[in-house]
Design goal:
With 233 residues, the chain is an alpha/beta fold. It has a single domain, classed as 3-Layer(aba) Sandwich (Rossmann fold). It is 45% helix and 23% strand. Strands 3-2-1-4-5-7-6 form a 7-stranded mixed sheet, sandwiched between helices. Helix 1 crosses helix 4 and helix 1 packs across helix 6. The structure holds S-adenosylmethionine.
């Protein structure tokens, strides 16, 4: 399979693995993924009291949206390419607060300056046009609005720990993941998507170019899984 970020390919792939996505996410992260999401929300709660309108972009099955409920929002919009992932999101989150929307991050169907917070959990490395998506997020946020990214970045420095993890990630995880998800490539793609992605310094520079101030970065796991907190200027 040739590595691609084509949106149709990505949407179809997530549709295909949606039934096992949550279970495999928890299993393959050693049950840490929700702890990383929760940690990010805890920090957001500590820096602002108001998150009325929240966008969970590349929401997938809604696990970040579930954590956002802690911020007492009036509305959460879950935006994703994959209809099958959004169906799971809809089942999970309360219908009076949450509205799933099939959308691509490059063109968001929301008013300028509407959101207090946008969050993306493990989504940005799949974006075909990253800077364009970040500009679009900046557009829909209010000035002073917050933007949190949780992502697997290329480590800034290679060391024994992250090299060993890379070995697991390249050789072991795709075999288990593809078999359990009954997919020929989804979990091989997962490795490729991280291996072809940028590091956190490069990502932070893109955010700054798109009009954000970096508030904090947090290394969650081996310099690979990081949270980046930013504010729209
Ligand atoms: C790895 S899942 C992450 C789901 C969830 N945020 C989480 O924390 O588990 C990535 C999601 O990003 C979505 N996605 C990828 N590219 C996208 C794009 N350009 N616009 C909108 N959603 C996109 C996929 O459909 C998929 O559901």
């Amino acid at each position: 399979m040739k590595y691609t970020k084509n949106k149709e390919f990505i949407g179809n792939m997530f549709d295909e693995i949606s039934p096992t996505y949550d279970k495999l996410n928890h299993l393959l992260s050693g049950y840490q993924d929700n702890r990383w999401r929760r940690g990010a929300v805890k920090y957001l709660a500590s820096i602002s009291g108001r998150y009325d309108n929240i966008l969970d972009l590349a929401s997938g099955s809604g696990d970040l949206g579930m954590e956002f409920l802690e911020l007492n929002p009036k509305r959460i919009f879950s935006g994703d390419l994959s209809l099958e992932m959004l169906k799971i999101d809809k089942e999970k989150l309360p219908n009076d607060i949450n509205q799933p929307v099939k959308t691509e991050a490059e063109h968001l169907p929301f008013k300028t300056g509407y959101f207090d917070l946008c969050g993306i959990g493990f989504g940005v490395r799949n974006f075909e046009h990253l800077a364009e998506c970040i500009m679009e997020i900046s557009r829909v946020l209010k000035p002073g609005g917050k933007f949190v990214t949780i992502e697997m970045f290329k480590p800034l420095k290679a060391n024994i720990a992250n090299r060993s993890f890379r070995l697991y990630f390249e050789k072991v995880l795709p075999k288990i993941g593809n078999r359990m998800a009954k997919s020929e490539y989804a979990y091989s793609y997962l490795f490729e998507s991280v291996d072809n992605f940028i590091n956190i310094a490069e990502y932070s520079a893109i955010l700054q170019k798109c009009g954000f101030k970096i508030l904090k970065t947090k290394n969650n796991f081996l310099g690979i899984v990081n949270s980046v907190f930013a504010e729209k200027l």
